[in-house]
Known about the structure:
The chain has 194 residues and is mainly α.
Amino acid sequence: MDTTGMVHCDTAVGTPDYISPEVLKSQGGDGYYGRECDWWSVGVFIFEMLVGDTPFYADSLVGTYSKIMDHKNSLNFPDDVEISKDAKNIICAFLTDREVRLGRNGVDEIMRHPFFKNDQWTFDTIRDTVAPVVPELSSDIDTSNFDEIEDDKGDVESFPTPKAFVGNQLPFRRLHVLQRGSVTKRFQQHLGGS
């Protein structure tokens, strides 16, 4: 991160469903983004907690990335899930262009959003408030409050192995070339020579 709070990166890094458009654009070498990319992810997980799916889910990675890049048209709220006006507003405020994204001016603007207004707590008293649900745990590693996850991962997308020659495919290490056509004595011995 530079002195202006920006990161320069030529590779898109992040979990596919949560990655912001500006981070996706970094894949082509235009990677210059700031902390606001994390607020995009907050919008995704608020949506996921309320709806049960990520907002830009698709059956393929390319489909997910296409929806993220076209977020203005692809962000939709399902009719069968009741979501408050304030919840929709904060999600839309996070899942928008970085220049106008909620949080770009700091966390205080997020804390002032109507989504967080309630009668039970404030950000100053939240640590003193009793949680509405306190799970019963039998041990530190008790996972009984989580759904079982099937081991079958199905078809996993992967990048194809390059078919062209790549130098690191050679079985030799520490090859020292002294001059054109000449190799070190150690390498000659490895080949069975003197």
